[in-house]
Structure prediction request, 219 residues.
Amino acid sequence: MKNKFIELFNKCSDELKSLAFTHSSYAHDKKIESNERLEFLGDSVLSTIVSDYLYKHAHQNEGKMSKVRAMFVCTENLSSLAKELDIEKSIRLGKSFKEKSVSDAILADTIESMIGAMYLSFGLHSISNAVLDALKIKERLKKGVKAVDYKSELQEYTQGMKIKLKYNDETYLTESGQENFRANVFINNEFIAYGQGSTKREAEQNAAHLALKKIKKKS
Prediction:
């Protein structure tokens, strides 16, 4: 499954493969193009592949399909694939990242860049199954995957504990001009975690998920 994903990526041109692994920090140091445009493309391609599959096989309403799709394309799921593929050592980072571990967000962005490169090389139809299989989407959907609403779970927790929950949302532009979102979670005015995403909802879901992880570790 994952081998098919890597096999396809390895068939891309050397130029595209190199670009997919070029983080913006490295590009800034070397004055070359980063993988952000590829990431933007790969994000859209991934969303289309998953949406198409869910439409044909999930038979759920729009709201439920959106939640399931968000779970499949979230930072945690993509970074998990990146770790399985052991791509961290291939990512080209700038001097500012020396002796620092690569974040889940960078790993997830790199997977999207790889998908963008494969799409440009082979087209949507040729890469769909490889992407679906690598992320175990078919397998998990057959088992009856249940979308988790981390925002609702965090809200229920804070209400039960009678503590204050607040999100502070920000937008920022990447070097390629793409608008991204960052959501900061505060509990009782204390910063707990932040999440990023291409939409405000995705950023808040990722932030809530990380906040819940931190809370559960402490308890």
